[in-house]
């Protein structure tokens, strides 16, 4: 993403990267700095100070936990001339809290797997056949593939629930999970089928623009390793782009958001399994197909909306693979 934004500036600006510890993205930028951790009282003042010092026009975050913190301080960034590309606090809270996310999906009549936060309640649903085995156990405030376990019966469910709870307590998820200590584990019906990734894109004022659809062909640790970009000639394209519009209406967001969808083999209907209000790990496949969203952000900042929309046109049929590179720090 650092390299994409550097290229998007076309030599007319600089990209700075920040993190609380050293990472391969930092030296790839034109400049970088190590920040206090997100929960530190000095985190926002530090960032605002750097924005003032380096005359930074735009801030983009790629970390879920960071988003609501930045959203709460948008006006302070604007006071020093910096626009933070982030959605409203309520939408971000519902995207980060996966149980609230499913409740909002249900309220908006968007299909999603049956989900619960209580073992006894989930077992009653299974007995009533409104939920079925197998189920997936995962953190309510989860990211990546931390704590995700499949259970096929009551005994496995209880064991998986305990294991997931332990992984939450032993990872950075423990901070987010403080909001619901006794209900921080999700029990979710497993939907079998092909998985798709959607880049649902709005402008910087939150007006929906388009949805890019990719079919996932290989996954690793919660990340898409191989995918192909779909177009109008693909049978799934219409229903998934319409789903993108529905999600945009139900979750008003700014810029690009990442949505994971299963096309269920039971009824060939799409079920939303996750929404991340940021660039996701599947976006590089869209970029490979010509959808230059970083460039679009810059053009939108310059008031060139039509040009921004044109540079996000994707080429259907582009098939990509992720590679692994070793960088010298």
Mean pLDDT reading: 94
The low-pLDDT segments are: none
Topology as a string of helices (H) and strands (E): HEHEHEHHEHHEHEEHHEEEEHEEHHHE
Helix content bin? 25-40%
- What structural class results from the helix and strand content? alpha+beta
Tell me the major beta sheet: 6 strands, antiparallel
N-end to C-end Cα span: 18 Å
> What is the gyration radius calculated from CA atoms?
20 Å
Overall 3D shape: globular
Content of β-strand = 15-25%
What does this structure look like?
- Helix content is 35%, strand content 23%.
- The chain contains 14 helices and 14 strands.
- The protein has helices spanning 2-8, 25-28, 43-54, 66-71, 74-78, 89-96, 98-107, 119-127, 154-169, 173-176, 237-250, 283-288, 293-301, 305-310, and strands at 16-19, 31-34, 58-59, 83-84, 115-116, 135-139, 149-151, 185-189, 193-202, 208-220, 223-229, 256-264, 270-276, 319-321.
- It has a six-stranded antiparallel beta sheet with strand order 13-12-9-10-11-14.
- A hairpin with a 5-residue loop joins strand 9 (193-202) and strand 10 (208-220).
- The chain is globular, with a radius of gyration of 20 Å.
- The model has no long low-confidence stretch (mean pLDDT 94).
Summary?
The chain has 329 residues and is an alpha+beta fold. It has helices at residues 2-8, 25-28, 43-54, 66-71, 74-78, 89-96, 98-107, 119-127, 154-169, 173-176, 237-250, 283-288, 293-301, 305-310; strands spanning 16-19, 31-34, 58-59, 83-84, 115-116, 135-139, 149-151, 185-189, 193-202, 208-220, 223-229, 256-264, 270-276, 319-321. Helix 6 (89-96) crosses helix 7 (98-107).
